[in-house]
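User: Hello, can you help with two protein structures?

Assistant: Certainly.
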Amino acid sequence: VQLQAFGGGLVQPGGSLRLSCAASTRTSSIRYMGWYRQAPGKERELVARLYTDSDTEYYADSVKGRFTISKDNAKNTLYLQMASLIPQDTATYYCHTQITTGMNFWGKGTLVTVSS
């Protein structure tokens, strides 16, 4: 499975950005998809996850109410809509998926910088 994430960039505090992650496999083969991020000097952390069978969403406390995860099954694409961005959201964001066999796949990161 190949994942390609894009949509990162520089945004001012309070701004919005949408990340996209295109998967090379059908979403029916996917157990869940999500976004992680890693800030400089910090460990990678789970930001949001979407379980494809139930459409259950998970969000880290730090992004609840500001970020929204969604998917387009027809395009095999996962999105992360980020709003009310703060400097602490600055990180490299990674798309991740686990397929029904239990294997995990990662996409290359996309950098999000929140700065005035």
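That covers the first. Now for the second protein you mentioned:
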Amino acid sequence: QVQLVESGGGLVQAGGSLRLSCAASGFTFSSYAMSWYRQAPGKERELVAGKYKYGGSTNYADSVKGRFTIFRNNAKNTVYLQMNSLKPEDTAVYFCKATSLYDNYWGQGTQVTVSS
């Protein structure tokens, strides 16, 4: 059974940091590109950061460049999102996603709330 379980969300003041984790099971983690998306109330889900399976390529939304870092540990089947210098506009539910040529899997999401 495929599972993606996010954790690490919470309430933080503007300027603070959080590290999100997404633990994967039920598929060959190292064969999948991993990414983080977020969805704020009333808005569409958007890509925040992506990390390709061979570890050499990453991409970030312009709004988070220089503040967020995505990294993965294939030995632990886990992908992380380090979020620094958080802003109120970063408030959203954050989802991790696993992607291959043949299928996609989503986690259930974790809430991040940044107070001003």
